[in-house]
Amino acid sequence: MNQNRIVLVVSVTVVQENEVLMIKENKPSAINKWNFPSGRIEQGEDILNAACREVKEETGYDVKILETTGVYNFISSSNHQVILFHFIAEIQGGFLKLEEDEIIDSKWISLSEIQNMKNEELRDSKVIRQIVEAMINKKFHPTEVFNEKLH
Is the CB of residue 1 less than 8 Å from the CB of residue 20? Predict the structure, then answer.
């Protein structure tokens, strides 16, 4: 039996003055799609560290993780099962410097503006809409549910 791969992903909504940062991707699996900074958790990496690393790589910002909206399980457009850990963060330092080649644009946008975007503009639109809904309804959880990686 051929099993599809399970991919572990972190996703981060960076919040500043009632707006959130979205990036436009230029990856083969997501050309011209808007998304929150996100990426795969590397082998042996702590989940919260992975979230901060991905934001830094894709946007140039250093962030502090504040809370989580939870864990999302879905099948990606490439037919992989994705387990996505989503976090809310605020900027602590750095400056906007988009990851060359993979990120082609960014914008600060309100949650209601994301709700008004077309599905084809968003990467994995169902998941992004679930995250936005959780944020609007303030369904947040403390990050203490994610225990540090044991050595």
Answer: no
Q: Is residue 48 part of a domain?
A: yes
135 assigned to some structural domain: yes
Its pTM stands at 0.92
Residue with tokens 């590397």: 42
In-domain check, residue 150? no
Find the CATH number of the domain harbouring 128.
Answer: 3.90.79.10
Roughly how many angstroms between the first and final C-alpha of the chain, as a whole number? 34
Say how many domains are in the chain. Answer: 1
List 108's β-bridge partners, or say none. 21
- For 120, the token pair is 């084809």
Give the C-alpha distances (Å, rounded to integers) separating 51 from 115, 116, 119: 24, 26, 25
Nearest to 86 by CA among 119, 127, 147, 33: 127
* pLDDT tens column, 67-126: 999 999 999 877 889 999 999 999 999 999 999 889 999 999 999 999 999 999 999 999
